[in-house]
Amino acid sequence: MNMPAKNKFNIWNILALIILSFFLLFTVYPLFLVLKKSIVDPNTGAFTLSYLTKFFTNKFYWVTLINSFKVTIVVTLLSVALGLPIAYLMRKIKIFGNKIVETLIIISYLSPPFIGAYAWIQLLGRNGVLTKFINSIFKLQFNGIYGFPGIVLVLTLQSFPLVYMYISGALKNLDNSLDEAAESLGYTSLERVFKIIIPLVMPTVLASCILVFMRVIADFGTPMLIGEGFKTMPVLIYNQFMSEVGGDDGFAAALCVIIIALTILLFLIQRFVANHYSYSMTALKPMMPQKEKGIKNIFAHLFVYLTVLLAILPQIVVIYTSFLKNRGGQVFIKGFSLDSYRATLLAKDNSIIPNTYKLGLAAILIIIVLGILISYLTVRKRNSLTSTLDTITMFPFIIPGSVLGIAFLFAFNQKPLLLSGTAIIMIIAFAIRRMPYTIRSSTAIISQISPSIEEAAISLGASETRAFTRVIVPMMMPGVIAGAIMSWVTVISELSSSIILYTNKTQTLTVAIYTEVIRGNYGNAAAYSTVLTLTSIVSLLLFYKLTGKKEIGV
Amino acid sequence: MSVSIDIENVVKRYGDKTIIDGLSLMVSPGEFFTLLGPSGCGKTTLLRMIIGFNTIEGGEIKINGNVINNIPVNKRNMGMVFQNYAIFPHMSVKENVAFGLKNRGLSKQEIEDKIKEILDIVKIDEYKDRMPDKLSGGQQQRVALARAIVIHPQVLLMDEPLSNLDAKLRVEMRNAIKNIQQQVGITTVYVTHDQEEALAVSDRIAVMHEGKIQQIGTPRQVFERPLNVFVSNFIGVSNILEANIETNGGERNINFDNNYIVKMDNLRDDIKDDLKVLVSVRPHEFIISKNEEGIKGIIKGSMFLGLNTHYFVALEDGKEIEVIQNSDLSDIIPNGTRINLEVKPNKINVFDCNSQKTLIQVGEKHEYAS
């Protein structure tokens, strides 16, 4: 809209400036410090490449990068190999209980990967139930699924849901008449899959691949727990930074820079793919799942059920474990009890759960307010200032959590900006990291609101701010809430930055689960995980209820 | 208490592109004034300058003589009906209508009364508690109209309000709009690209093209005496034929190619002999001749539309034209029939081939002039 008021200092520009300074302070400045520390010698203040050289000349270090790539590539490929066929089967064939299957897939996606790692250790670790079972039957000396295969197993099962959700969404926008047109032109069912369906969903496949790639390469908890000797970049970063013998800031910063460079590259590829290889489709008549008969039907059901069972297995194991009788949380004895819950939820002075909720809700509040304003400003008040805002707010999306955590500690470790150790630093880290979900869904909804709605309000005598608060904000709410729930679920399952930023006073559920697992106290970890899973499920149901949709925006 | 709108030499620029360059017009108090033109002609741009969504880069817009260029939109007190209605989807019909009243310091009772009154006028009282998504297109249109009028604006602006409705509803709603406008007596500027709609509702029409006004006049004037070829083509269907002027003493004739000569008595006095002209003949201004006189052609096709029958006729030079005859006059003439076409000299319009402007006398008295 083109308002007569040419005043540059109108309320919108002032708001944009305030939000921009917030992001400059909490995103750009910390990241700038990381870059600076990675190339400046702290003693002389001179430019140095020694940290980067140290990484690339020492096999102990650079091998982690190779490891990260290995894991990421294999996981991405396997995720597509599982996600694509399941998405197609679920759209094409009527799978019994498909609603539940879909919900289970989403739940397995929402839970933090490291819980999967810890659950699989219980099943296939050195003393795992399945390991013992296999070894006793086949007289083997199988030593547990650690290292590369373990990481791949856990991350694949956690990542294919993302591919599934993306492709499922694309297939829903694929009009059935396209398939019918090909059929009428004489193509067989299989030919149609390869000539019509796959080419049309290919851009989506690529987009989801890159997202999986970014998530996996930045994941810290899984390789930390199940990787053992097999170290990846995020693990190296964490170790270098947190090392008991005095972490090396400069080297850790250099590692951060390397991984940021990688993720930025991936992000640019993703943008390119999205801009150049997407078809805009809206289906008047989407594909309808048909009942299948015979072997095809059995095979489809088996494939879907088995995969989903594997994906949801960690959750089942965790919930089951949480009810086992145990001594001090470490040694399990026969029978069920609420011991683990007694030791955690009901323990005196246990502030972990209230912490999680308090910090999470505070972060969500910031996310909602800023999310609404940012999406409004970037869509409706397009200028150089808001474009900058648009770019900067997407930054955190590509910065791995551990990198953000380290950057925050670099930046806010001394007066006047002494924030480390406070709840505020945690809240801001959560808010910044998970805001993109809310911004994206808010932006989507505001793009659908016709500008004339706002003009109508103004022509009726409302001021711009009144038109915004009384008309635009209420109309945006469904999209904002949907995004905020997604932000919420990811905030409470956030580990990689909180593990670096937390103190005893600001411990959250994920941090508690992680530390309990490291201590070997699986009972307590299971009880905390169950609380986390339940919170996610309730949030998901709330999301369904509020949006009336059976799918989530990813 | 209706107001006049004076638009004086206004200029609209986007960057270094000038969309409207010094346009002037005047709307009388209580008038239903229409801006008509093809898309991109600048009509919506001009409308949005009047309400204030677009800035004015030059010239002035005055309401009752007072310049309003720098008054913000929300202080202009103008009602606007949008192309997509812009109904607030999260408010009921009543809340939508009440929105503009709420920040005017009226008492609850006053607001209630005003809403009641306007909902009666636009005939949607029974739907007042419904949400917009439960309304048909026509009903939403009525809500949009009620919401714009209820604040008693000085001026009512409508931006293609009927373009989202189906054909039948469009006719019904344009009658409703016309009636309501007359009832309320508010100065109205209406934007449309649909010439039939413009003819139906307007007191006066400004035909626009490429940011310029081509003609301002009553519906009859712009339809029957277009000032240039563009207006002639844009409003209604016109067949444009090439011809030459033949002067013979005080007589001025139009000579069509095959020596069909028509005597004219309303051409300008200063016309020179042998001037190349374009003759605009509406399909119903042809007479299928019984004698040998007329422009020769062959019937290529016909379309019976009840009251009238349309013929598609190929002339000797290959040009295809459309002719409309009252169906009662004769049986449908079969394809391939050779016919002669005469024109009605007092109806046709003649334009200079170069300037494309009319050669009909200014202020020419014809029987329908208003």
UniProtKB/TrEMBL annotation, chain A:
It comes from the Bacteria. Keywords: Cell inner membrane, Cell membrane, Membrane, Transmembrane, Transmembrane helix, Transport. Residues 65-270, 353-543 form the ABC transmembrane type-1 domain. It is found in: Cell inner membrane; Cell membrane. Its main location: membrane. It is a multi-pass membrane protein. One of its GO terms (cellular component) is plasma membrane. PROSITE patterns: ABC_TM1. The chain crosses the membrane at residues 12-32, 60-88, 100-121, 145-167, 196-218, 251-274, 295-320, 359-379, 391-410, 416-432, 480-502, 522-544. Belongs to the binding-protein-dependent transport system permease family. This is Iron ABC transporter permease.
UniProtKB/TrEMBL annotation, chain B:
It comes from the Bacteria. Gene3D superfamilies: 2.40.50.100, Nucleic acid-binding proteins, P-loop containing nucleotide triphosphate hydrolases. Residues 5-235 form the ABC transporter domain. One of its GO terms (cellular component) is ATP-binding cassette (ABC) transporter complex. Coiled coil: none annotated. Keywords: ATP-binding, Nucleotide-binding, Transport. InterPro entries: AAA+_ATPase, ABC_SmlMolc_Importer, ABC_transporter-like_ATP-bd, ABC_transporter-like_CS, Mo/tungstate-bd_C_term_dom, NA-bd_OB-fold, P-loop_NTPase, Transp-assoc_OB_typ2. GO terms for molecular function: ABC-type transporter activity; ATP binding; ATP hydrolysis activity. This is ABC transporter ATP-binding protein. It comes from Paratissierella segnis.
